[in-house]
Amino acid sequence: MDEPRERGTERARAAALDLIRAVLEDRRLVAELAGPDGPLEPLEPSDRARAQRLAVSTLRHMGRADAVLKPFLRRPPPPPVHAILRLATVEMLEGGAAAHGAVNAAVALARADRRTEALAGLVNAVLRKVADLPASDWLALPPPRLPGWLRGRLDSAWGRAAVVGIEAAHAAGAPLDLTPKDGDAAALAGATGGVALPTGSVRIAGSVQVSALPGYGEGAWWVQDAAASLPARLLAARPGERVLDLCAAPGGKTMQMAAAGATVTALDISEQRMARVEENLARTDLTATLVVADALDWDTDQRFDAILLDAPCSATGTIRRHPDLPFAKDGASVKPLFPLQSALIDRALGLLAPGGRLIFCTCSLLPEEGEAQLAAALDRHPDLAPIAFEAPWIDPGWRAAHEALRLRPDFWADRGGLDGFFIAGLRKPA
User: What is the pLDDT of residues 370-402, one digit of tens each?
Assistant: First the structure.
């Protein structure tokens, strides 16, 4: 390896370690840490991507790494040392890194920090034993279990078999899904080498550079999980309709509805996230009115034909893409979201024109953020009519009460899975 590249790899490993420690010790999310002033900021783009991949892979397979390390440790090491051991273990056994380089790099990381330098010898000794393990030992390990606060809730909601399937989906990670601007999934699949899914998305397996795929520069598509594309598909915006996208960032649903010809207003509380919506609209040459505001405070004389509310939630349906989530959040941090979701549903209904339709969705696996929210909304507003979704791609197993849909990561396992989502439709009386 040439010297500049080797230095870049060293910096990427150090940044990955900083990300892992911040998630485990400070309960911060990788998405927050990847922003300005974060540990990735000084890196070159290729090293930044490598650091993020290393950190995410370590967090995804941490349970397996701990199972491998346990026999070689008399007692749990201090958290900063444990993070180094986990990173190197996953890099070797899951990532296929050369043992010599990964062990030496881990020892160098330990020596570079006063909190860990005294245990550099332990790091070296333990990782040399890990490096001697046969690959079959790693492959035979079960998928990492979800943290207790979440596993218990999902077990109660969906049953043990479903939880095991969800954990397997989380360990497998997620493929890349694209939404074609013109709706022609077959053509986009042909151009990119992907597979057209029944829902209209295009799925690409393996690791690819997104900006190098055909059609990126022309704005012919955008990245969006297949499940995340379904709320806008089910809303089925028509040309000229006045549509409001509440909690719109990063803008995939806004672009879907704008591409359908609707007059779209996109609202989000985060100025930084709305800047991404603006960038995505510019790349795809689509138009929407952008509003940075708190949806509960924002008011307008306009009433909308349709509203899509993708409410703030625990995001537990996206763990296969964001394995840091279970470590950065806990049950207490999720509870305040429940009343916020209820308030947003009521606010959206107030902005809806008579006869208008609301799509409420969350990327959550918790019934409190889906089925329970829908039932409570119908109790508060008995004049609302649930919308029955009809599409040839809807699997009967997705159907839930009050005509809603419940998606889980263990669904479509043979196709690469789906993010967890709850989607419901409500029509306001005319």
Answer: 999 999 999 999 999 999 999 999 999 999 999
pTM for the model: 0.93
Q: Which residues contact 173 (CB under 8 A, 6 or more apart)?
A: 60, 320, 321
Name the strand (E) or helix (H) holding 422: strand 421-427
What are the b/e assignments for 43-64, b being 16+ CB within 10 Å? beeebbebbbebbbbbbbbbbb
Q: H or E element: which one contains 306?
A: strand 304-310
With the C-alpha atoms ordered 104, 19, 314, 403, is the resulting torsion angle positive or negative?
Answer: negative
- Cα–Cα distances (Å) from 124 to 19, 120, 137, 153, 398, in that order, read 22, 6, 20, 39, 49
**The dihedral sign for the CA sequence 419, 287, 352, 238:** negative
Query: CA neighbours within 13 Å on the CB side: how many for 171?
Result: 21
Task: Round the CA-based radius of gyration of the chain to a whole number and report it.
Answer: 23
DSSP 270-299: -HHHHHHHHHHHHHHT---EEEES-TTT--
Element (DSSP H or E) covering residue 402: none
pLDDT of residue 152: 94
Looking at the annotation, which residues are catalytic? 363
133-138-143 Cα angle (round to 5): 160
Contact 65, 90 (CB under 8 A): yes
* Residues of each annotated binding site for S-adenosyl-L-methionine: 247-253, 268, 294, 310
How many alpha carbons lie under 13 Å from residue 370 in its C-beta half-sphere?
27
CA 180 to chain centre: 20
Q: What is the pLDDT of residues 140-174, one digit of tens each?
A: 999 999 989 999 999 999 999 999 999 999 999 99
Q: Percentages helix, strand, coil for the chain, rounded to the nearest 5? A: 50, 15, 35
| Type of residue at 102 | A
- Cβ-contact 77, 56 below 8 angstroms: no
Please state the residue numbers annotated as binding site.
Answer: 247-253, 268, 294, 310
Cα-based distances in Å from 378 to 146, 335, 426: 32, 21, 9
8 A C-beta contact, residue 203 and residue 227: no
